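Figure 6 in text form: structure in, sequence out.
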């Protein structure tokens, strides 16, 4: 076996440097953030907080997401240490061959139906109430026990002879890092974008001690609104660092905290076009070298500001030295180079997938972004449609080789639709990631995710914090996967990684941050440290009362959107003008 000089250096350093004592972990997903974005940021803004985090920690230059690269499988992979074949999520809007239809409360209809675990299941959606509600219908602001989820919008399943509504967490097949950490005396928290992220609780339904999932959908059309929304997630994290829940109330003493959150500011401004943007500005990139448009540059600066706030809170609370801070992305975004972009719409796809509308509409389903996944109630239909799709591949903007079915599907996902109710029968995966099945006229998106292209899957992965200080910016150039994050956290805090069922099943290894002196799957130099350090950091409450958190039905300005009716404070969308200027200086 041949090794490059870079690989040999990495191996030598990995043997001589190892992780320090760890009591806490924070995992941040800057959705859509590529490794190329990090490299651009380091080159053009070396003093940015994310660049400095990479310079003082460890950087994994070939990190990959799950395939499909959608938010649901991407998040689930991060928290379970497993791939979709094991954890069971392929998409948020999908199909299961053992589900009864939404509303089939007696489970008497045909089995095998589509489902949607997105904002449509909330009590506060357009069909059920007020879509402007940040609480999504969970008036208490305690996003637990299915609060705010409309059971009449859920699929149904037979369990022990009973027909029951099937919540997102019910569909988790393996446990999560939160469930394992909580069982071992750690505080757990997670902040995300929809109430459907109930699934991060794991199959127990209560793995996250403090779940915070305000609804973003109505507020994603301007940079100012998304920034202020993401600030809520930052505020929750700062409260967790302080030893509080997201309301700001103290929590019981524990061995440490294991928490996670996502930020939407980059992803939304990558996708958005002037047709969908109230600011009438174009998102995305200017070239194939990850040069952001002015709008996206500001969004990246905002994400950098968020990371900076969290770093500052850790240091102010005396927890930097014992906290792993992971900055990654549950999905990328494609295509970075718009020159070959094809906006095809989904009419041809649907016509072909339905065999010219001869398959009943409730007997099949497709979900599509810059990919397409297709399921059938009757597997015989897949055998019929597959050659039709391949013969018409050009109309879908792909080659026949980019359409997977039969043995190719089994090879792609490592699971067989004939024996697994969730595995798609057919997948259309444009290799270049340059096809989006959205409206070709007046398009609202110029980027998407969900596929298997380089831009979809090659994401940032930086591990910072005091425990990795000895790595001093070391780059690991060997391929790694986001599934390795969860076992890394457990090993760092001294818990057997095989307590994660997905890790035990797939044999997922931690990231190479441990030297050969460890004790198997348990890292012996780590030990729980009771978190008693007091700190006093001003932070806006993130409580969500009835209706809109800000007491308004439709915010119109950033300042109005940021006024918290509980405290009268204004949540600053950016606390440092210099941070926003980091990228702007390189672009304007």
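Output sequence:
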């Amino acid at each position: 076996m041949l090794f490059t000089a870079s690989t040999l250096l990495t191996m030598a350093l990995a043997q001589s440097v190892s992780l320090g004592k760890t009591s806490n972990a924070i995992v941040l997903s800057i959705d859509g953030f590529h490794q190329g974005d990090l490299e651009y940021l380091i080159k053009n803004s070396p003093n940015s907080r994310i660049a400095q985090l990479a310079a003082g920690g460890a950087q994994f230059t070939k990190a990959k997401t799950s395939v499909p690269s959608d938010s649901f499988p991407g998040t689930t992979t991060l928290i379970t240490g497993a791939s979709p074949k094991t954890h069971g999520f392929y998409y948020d809007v999908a199909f299961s061959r053992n589900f009864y239809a939404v509303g089939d409360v007696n489970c008497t209809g045909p089995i095998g139906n589509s489902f949607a675990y997105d904002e449509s299941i909330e009590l506060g959606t357009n069909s059920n109430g007020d879509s402007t509600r940040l609480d999504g219908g969970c008036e208490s602001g305690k996003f637990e026990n299915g609060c705010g989820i409309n059971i009449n919008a859920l699929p149904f399943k037979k369990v022990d002879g009973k027909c029951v509504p099937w919540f997102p967490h019910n569909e988790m097949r393996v446990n999560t890092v939160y469930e394992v950490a909580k069982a071992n005396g750690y505080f757990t928290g997670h902040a995300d974008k929809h109430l459907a992220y109930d699934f991060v609780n794991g199959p127990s339904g209560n793995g996250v001690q403090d779940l915070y999932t305000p609804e973003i959908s109505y507020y994603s059309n301007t940079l100012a609104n998304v920034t202020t929304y993401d600030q809520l997630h930052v505020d929750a994290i700062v409260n967790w660092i302080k030893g509080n829940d997201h309301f700001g109330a103290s929590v019981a003493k524990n061995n440490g905290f294991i928490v996670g959150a996502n930020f939407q500011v980059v992803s939304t401004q990558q996708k958005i076009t002037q047709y969908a943007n109230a600011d009438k500005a174009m998102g995305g990139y200017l070239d194939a070298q990850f040069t952001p448009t002015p709008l996206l540059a500001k969004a990246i600066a905002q994400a950098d500001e968020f990371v900076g706030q969290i770093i500052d809170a850790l240091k102010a609370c005396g927890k930097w030295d014992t906290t792993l801070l992971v900055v990654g992305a549950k999905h990328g975004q494609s295509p970075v180079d718009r020159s070959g972009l094809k906006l095809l719409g989904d009419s041809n796809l649907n016509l072909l997938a339905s065999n010219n509308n001869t398959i009943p509409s409730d007997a099949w389903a497709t979900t599509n972004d810059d990919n397409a996944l297709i399921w059938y109630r009757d597997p015989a239909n897949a055998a019929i449609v597959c050659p039709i799709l391949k013969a018409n591949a050009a109309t879908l903007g792909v080659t026949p080789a980019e359409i997977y079915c039969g043995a190719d599907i089994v090879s792609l996902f490592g699971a067989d639709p004939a024996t697994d109710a969730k595995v798609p029968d057919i997948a259309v995966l444009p290799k270049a990631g340059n096809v989006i099945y959205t409206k070709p006229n007046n398009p609202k998106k110029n980027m998407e995710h969900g596929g298997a292209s380089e831009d979809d899957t090659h994401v940032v992965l930086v591990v910072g914090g005091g425990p990795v200080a000895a790595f001093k910016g070391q780059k690991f150039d060997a391929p790694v996967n986001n599934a390795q994050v969860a076992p890394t956290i457990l090993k760092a805090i001294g818990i057997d990684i095989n307590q994660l069922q997905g890790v035990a099943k797939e044999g997922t290894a931690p990231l190479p941050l441990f030297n050969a002196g460890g004790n198997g799957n348990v890292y012996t130099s780590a030990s729980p440290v009771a978190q008693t350090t007091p700190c006093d950091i001003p932070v806006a409450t993130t409580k969500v009362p009835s209706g809109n958190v800000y007491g308004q039905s439709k915010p119109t300005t950033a300042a109005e959107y940021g006024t918290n009716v509980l405290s009268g404070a204004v949540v600053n969308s950016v606390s440092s003008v210099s941070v926003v200027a980091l990228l702007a200086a390189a672009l304007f």
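Caption detail: The mean pLDDT is 87.
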